[in-house]
Amino acid sequence: MTSKFLFAAASGVVAIAMSTSAVAQTAPAAPAISHGAPITGVCIFSSQRAVGSSAVGKAVDARLKTIIAQVNAELTGERTTLDNEAKALDAKKATMDQGALEQQAAGLQVKANAWQRKGQLRQKEVEATEQKALSRVYQELDPAIKQVYQQRTCGILLDRESVLLANPAMDITDAVVVALDARIKTLTFDRERLDQPTAGAQALTPTRK
Q: Is 202 among the domain residues?
């Protein structure tokens, strides 16, 4: 930091792990596996893959990235202003009265503390935005799952993430994605505002075409 009076903060302004935008690590190709015959009535499904590969899941991911970029731009701009004020104070401290120096330093610290609180608030807002958007996606995903479950005459549906190996013929994920895309393709939403009354909060608007 340029001033001993300015708080120490991590260089990253907002670091939010997004379930819908995690980048998969490149892994070596696995050897081919021979599966037994599909078990009649047993189906498997990956909700994570369904959301990630669906049109609405990709739209939500893109919108969240835009919101995060906007938040980072806001906080970075304010951080730059604080850094410049700290540099200016450092440049004057040799000629300033000690009392005046401490007074300005205290004022700068107040601004820095407020910036930290805003950063924490913005992170919570982005997290709340993601949760709300994904909740809306899962509302549409549930009937799509049930639709394919009945079409494939499944007797039991297993979570793919809990199954080590299975015949791909029993996986209904791709079919569910098709059904989900037919129900909803995108969502229109803005960042949640946790510092304002929620009565006028904007509802998520689905677009089906």
A: no
> What percentage of residues in the chain have a pLDDT greater than 70?
80
The answer to whether residue 170 sits within a structural domain is: yes
Coil/strand/helix, residue 186: strand
Pairwise CA distance, residues 41 & 155, whole Å:
4
pTM (predicted TM-score) = 0.75
Query: Residue 131 domain-assigned?
Result: yes
Q: How many domains does the chain have?
A: 1
128-145 pLDDT tens trace:
999 999 999 999 999 999
CB 43 within 8 A of CB 170: yes
Any long-range contacts for 97-100 (C-beta under 8 Å, 24+ apart)? Answer: none
Domain span at residue 56 reads: 39-191
